[in-house]
Model the fold of this input.
Amino acid sequence: MTDLQEPIRDVAHLGHVELLTPRPAESLWFFTEVLGMTVTDRQGQSVYLRAYGDYEHCTLKLTEAPHAGLGHVGWRTVSPQALERRAQALSSQGYGQGWIEGDIGHGRAFRFTDPDGHLMELYYEAQKYLASAELRSRLYNQPQKFTGHGVGVKRIDHVNLMCHDITPNRLFLQEQLGFRLRELLQPEENGIEEGAWLSVTPLTHDIAYMRDFSGAHGRLHHIAYWLDSREEVLRAADILSEHDIFIEAGPARHNVSQAFFLYLYEPGGNRVEVYSGGYLAFAPDWEPIVWRREQRGRGVYWGGALPESFKTYGTPVIESVQTSQGGQTPAPVFDPL
Done:
C-alpha cells in the first residue's frame, strides 16, 4: 500500500474577490447594467455585489483606487477550527499579515500573501443572502430570482492571477492550503511552468496562475463569472457588443479546462471572463494533466487563437510589457465606453 499523506481539507471554496478600479461609476454600471449583478451594500469607496446564484451576501467588492487591479481574494474555510489551523500554519511560514475584524458579508478573517505578493484572506463566518420580496425566487433552493437583466451571470467561478514564477506559488497553495493541481502548462519537460490550474472543489480551477512575462509581481489576469450554457455565452457577446464593451477573445473553447469562454475588459481596465462548460474532477487520486508545447497548440480547442495581449495584459497595467517571445509590446489600447 502506498503511504499517502492525508490531504489538507480546510478551505471550502472561493468566496469573493475585491477589484480595484480608477473609474468606479463606469465599472459599477458595467457589473450591474451589463452583467446583471445586484448591489447588496456600500461602504466608503467600495460597493458590494452578487450574482443571482451566489449564496453569500456578496462575491465582488468594487473599490475605487488610482489604478485597476486586485484588492484581495477571499476564501471560506470549512470550519472555525480550520480557519485557526490555516492561520497558524501560514504565520509559522512567514506569509501571515494578521487578523482583521471582518468586512461586509463576512466575519473575522486572517490575511496573508502568496509568494508573488497577491493579498488573500481566509474566513469562516459568512452572511447568507436573504432576498427581498421583489427578488425572492419561486425556486425555494435558489438564493435570488433570475431577473433576465443584462448578461445575467449566475455565480462567481474562479480567479486567475499573474505571477513572476508559477512553481513556488502553486506549491504554496498545495502545501499550505490544500489545493489540488488539476492542470499544468509546462511547454518543455523540466522547463519553466507557464500556467497552473488548481482547486479545492471539484471544479477544474478555483484559481489559476499565469506567468507574468513583464517580470512584475501581484498582478491580476482575470476574474470569472459562470453562465449555465454556451448559448448564454453567445448571448453575452451580443449584449457586450451592443454596449461597446471591448471583447478580447472568444467565444471559443479552451483545451485546458475545456471551458467555453469569452474575455472582455470592464471600464476600469480589469479583464473579466464569462464562462461555461468545463469538467469536474472527482477522483481523490487525481493526476495533474501536463500540457507540452505540441499539445497546447494555440491555447484553444477550437475558435480563434488567443491574442498576444492574453499573455501580457494584466492589472495594474504596465504600459510596455515583455512579450512571451521576449520582445516589447504596448499594452492593448481600448475604450470601453
About this structure: The two ends are 61 Å apart (CA to CA). The chain has six helices and 20 strands. Confidence is low (pLDDT under 50) at residues 329-337. The chain has one domain: 11-125+151-330.
